[in-house]
Description:
Number of helices: 1
Number of strands: 7
Strand order of the largest sheet: 4-3-2-1-7
Largest sheet: 5 strands, antiparallel
Distance between the termini: 34 Å
Strand content: over 45%
Radius of gyration: 12 Å
Amino acid sequence: MKKTYPVKVGHDYRHFKGKIYKVLYVCRDANTNQNMVVYRAQSGDYQVWVRPLEEFCEFIERNGYRGPRFMEVKHG
């Protein structure tokens, strides 16, 4: 199991590609018992997405980027 960090419901997170998403829920899949994150785009079509918590928190390497998939946006 990969290490995860606390994901805060109601907080905004920036995806490594640049878009901002608000975490709506941290929940558990009824079939797999896997922890999941439900989040909504803060622009465009405001689509709602779901992703495993481990994946939401993972560090990635893509196209010269190395870092977290999502990083909390600090306001103020």
